[in-house]
Design a protein that fits this description.
Blueprint (H helix, E strand, L loop, with lengths): L3 H10 L3 H18 L2 H8 L22 H12 L3 H19 L1 H8 L4 H8 L6
Organism: Phytohabitans flavus
Protein name: DUF2267 domain-containing protein
Pfam families: DUF2267
């Protein structure tokens, strides 16, 4: 998948497109576990077709888990170390914000732990 989204993530994380793709899939799938089904569907409606399957959720209620668990899952799913996972989450969330728009993005971020929300809204130097 050679999407501009993946290219941004690769550039921002300093990784290959293969690693960026794994980070993107892992982050979006984990985000989908952590937010409501309705919010995941709202995001899915606004992303490129290739990314929509990663935002599909079978159940409405979110699965509550803290920041460190979020990062751990990304690292495990993408098969990267925790520092790369954290950098990947930040890059994917910034790219997601660019794609879905600020309001929709902030609606989803409101369902996340504060430290993850801060990671998602920081890093304006990436632009």
């Amino acid at each position: 998948m050679e999407l501009a989204f993946i290219q941004k993530v690769a550039e921002w994380t300093g990784t290959t497109t293969d690693v960026a793709e794994a980070l993107t899939e892992a982050t979006l799938r984990t985000l989908t576990q952590r937010i409501s089904g309705g919010e995941a569907a709202e995001l899915a409606d606004r992303v490129p077709d290739e990314l929509r399957p990663y935002l599909t959720k079978a159940q409405e209620p979110p699965e509550p888990f803290p920041y460190q668990e979020f990062i751990r899952r990304i690292g495990e799913y993408a098969n990267v170390d925790l520092a790369t996972a954290e950098s990947g989450v930040e890059a994917v969330l910034h790219a997601l914000r660019d794609v879905v728009g600020y309001k929709e993005f902030m609606d989803a971020m409101a369902q996340l732990p504060q430290d993850l929300g801060r990671l998602a809204t920081s890093g304006t130097t990436r632009r």
